[in-house]
Description:
The protein has 16 helices and 16 strands. By secondary structure, the protein is of the alpha/beta class. The chain has two domains: 63-298, Type I PLP-dependent aspartate aminotransferase-like (Major domain) (Aspartate Aminotransferase, domain 2); 309-430, Aspartate Aminotransferase, domain 1 (Alpha-Beta Complex), CATH 3.90.1150.10. Residues 1-11 have low confidence and may be disordered. Bound molecules: D-serine (DSN). Residues 53, 116, 144, 195 line the site of D-serine.
Amino acid sequence: MRKLTGYGVSPYDSLPTSPMFTYDALKKEDPKIYDALMGEMKRQKEGVELIPSENYISPAVLEVMGTVFNNKYSEGYPGKRYYGGQEYTDCVESIAIERATKLFRCEHANVQPHAGAPANVALYFALLEPGDTVMGMDLSHGGHLTHGHPVTYITKIFNFVRYKMKDVETGEIDYDEMREVALREKPKIILAGFSAYPRELDYAKMKAIADEVGAYTVADMAHIAGMIAGGALRNPFDDGFDVITTTTHKSLRGPRGGMILCRELELGRKIDKSVFPGFQGGPIMQMVAAKAVAFGEALKPEFRDYAHQIIANAKHMADVFMQSGAKLITNGTDNHLMMIDCVKSWDMTGQEAETLFDRIGITLNKNMIADDPRKPMDPSGIRFGTPAVTTRGMKEHDMKTLANFMLKAVENRGDDKVISALHDEVIEFCLRFPVPGIDS
Ligand code: DSN
């Protein structure tokens, strides 16, 4: 951990802050928090962010998050609020809804969920009765905690059944097994979506199975929302899916938050009631405003280029690792996600690899791999992805440079001198790529 010097003296005073954000008021009022902020800004500038669920928001999104929209309570929805003084909050929420529905080609959007997990919980309560069944991807094959991990409270209320990959070498889902389980268990929701799965799903096949058993189709597209918005990956609504849930801060490059989209307005009314008053209180209006700004950015043509470049970068990086002999889970990627079996590839654990890459300024996360014999706090794999580095303007040849930094670190893991020199090289490399919100 870096040492902060405490009151009034920041070790990061020399850091050039953004021309837009001086943080003068913060520095005067609370030097300890100012110091921590300066440290985080330096970390983000000098490091490589490969955590696939992270990104850098634009100066405009960042700017609106720190505004007086924070001061307003707005329970309800535009035109139907429980407090007065809503002319401007109604304006920003209506714009966010309009842009979200345009971006994802659907009839209804609820932009109030505070994050992805609350969005999923509100969704379950909107569509299910206690005891009803949801069928989602097996957690050990890339699914998400909110898709029914036993540690979550929703599993006390709803029943969760699983589908898996048929072949972990290709990542192909076992759609025959999915159909068998669906016919037997009669789920009310068939859930597509993942947080650690590098391949595309066949939404049409899932929709056909759901139709056979009368289930709703829901896609939790938190990881790939940006690529869907930018036309680089398939939109589940095009295959007739009923609902999409997502976070807004991953590849979609908005503020931290969640959102629920419905293909048809009628289902949207159920979702609205479930989000408020069913589950949440007042929306966090500065985040709703920031969502509106981010969706506006995602509607621009340059966002399409960004979405395609994320995937091009990931594919290139995956190839470099595979050519080096590293074992990538599913032997490649269709989206932004890559996972390496570190035990097989480098004779080290996922935790050891995460710590090693931290030492050279490359941030990623340890992760369970399919049917991992190890435990979540010390799993066999690492997970990483390209949305954040692509935002910084890195292209395919830069992915090769990054992969080579990582491979050199693995090769020289026992040599502190090489690791330290490599860290210097990573910093030098990073400083060539501006960070939105810090450098502009
Ligand atoms: N924490 C997010 C991720 O990293 O994928 C998902 O919840």
